[in-house]
């Protein structure tokens, strides 16, 4: 999530000026899942976030990936999260308990992850899991805090967590370049990538189990 002024104020404006499948495309999997993982600035916009979000979603969580396909000035396709609206994404968020958004923040930090979002408990658990995997994490970042109610990541039923990844860390997650392939082929990743994905998925599965346990009705005859 770079520090720049968006060319397009929202997704409808972008769609009206650009051509789908030439300038951008959307990849999604609506599994009716507990969590939705989003890379709103995927493709070449914040290179590497598409692959990370897809891996975090895995075979069991919802996945939405807006991919910028232009290699020249890809940042022009950036639409800020408080204005990022897509009907398919909103449908998934409406039916999801939590959401996680994956962003690249350029060179605003060296290797420290910035965590934001309004689901405080999920954010705290993500902080612990990422630190356990050896990552440096700042839960009180100076910018990109993801605390607006208009941020799409907070539009899941129980809101969500925004994860900002600095460029140096993103580079370490991939074996060379590119970090995105327009052809759709898989890019080569490193153990750093695997550790990050493991941490995110661990937190989401633990939260899903916790909520399922809370929703399970007590057996007849159980004292209160």
CATH architecture level-2 label: 3-Layer(aba) Sandwich
For the record, what is the CATH homologous superfamily label? Poly-gamma-glutamate hydrolase, zinc-binding motif
Distance between the termini: 49 Å
Which topology does CATH recognise? Aminopeptidase
Structural class of the helix and strand makeup?
A: alpha/beta
Q: Count structural domains.
A: 1
Keywords:
224 residues, alpha/beta, Aminopeptidase, seven-stranded mixed sheet, 7 strands, 31% helix, globular
Task: Describe the overall structure.
It is built from 6 helices and 7 strands; from the N terminus they run αββαβαββαββαα. With 224 residues, the chain is an alpha/beta fold. It has one domain: Aminopeptidase (3-Layer(aba) Sandwich). The chain has a 7-stranded mixed β-sheet with strand order 1-3-2-4-7-5-6, with helices on both faces. Helix 2 runs parallel beside helix 6 and helix 4 (120-132) packs antiparallel against helix 6 (191-215). The radius of gyration is 17 Å and the shape is globular. The termini are far apart. The model has no long low-confidence stretch (mean pLDDT 93).
């Amino acid at each position: 999530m770079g520090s720049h002024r968006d060319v397009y104020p929202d997704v409808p404006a972008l769609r009206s000026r650009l051509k789908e499948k030439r300038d951008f495309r959307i990849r999604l999997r609506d599994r009716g899942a507990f969590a939705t993982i989003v890379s709103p600035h995927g493709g070449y916009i914040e290179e590497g976030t598409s692959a990370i979000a897809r891996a975090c979603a895995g075979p069991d969580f919802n996945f939405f990936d807006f991919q910028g396909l232009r290699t020249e000035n890809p940042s022009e396709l950036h639409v800020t999260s408080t204005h990022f609206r897509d009907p398919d994404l909103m449908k998934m968020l409406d039916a999801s308990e939590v959401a996680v958004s994956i962003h690249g923040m350029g060179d605003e930090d060296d290797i420290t992850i910035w965590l934001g979002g309004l689901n405080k408990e999920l954010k705290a658990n993500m902080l612990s899991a990422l630190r356990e995997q050896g990552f440096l994490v700042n839960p009180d970042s100076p910018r990109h805090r993801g605390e607006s109610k208009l941020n799409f990541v907070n539009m899941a039923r129980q809101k969500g967590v925004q994860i900002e990844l600095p460029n140096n860390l993103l580079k370490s997650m991939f074996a060379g370049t590119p970090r995105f392939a327009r052809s759709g082929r898989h890019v080569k990743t490193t153990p750093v990538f695997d550790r990050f994905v493991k941490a995110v998925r661990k937190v989401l599965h633990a939260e899903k189990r916790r909520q399922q346990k809370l929703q399970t009705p007590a057996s007849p005859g159980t004292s209160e």
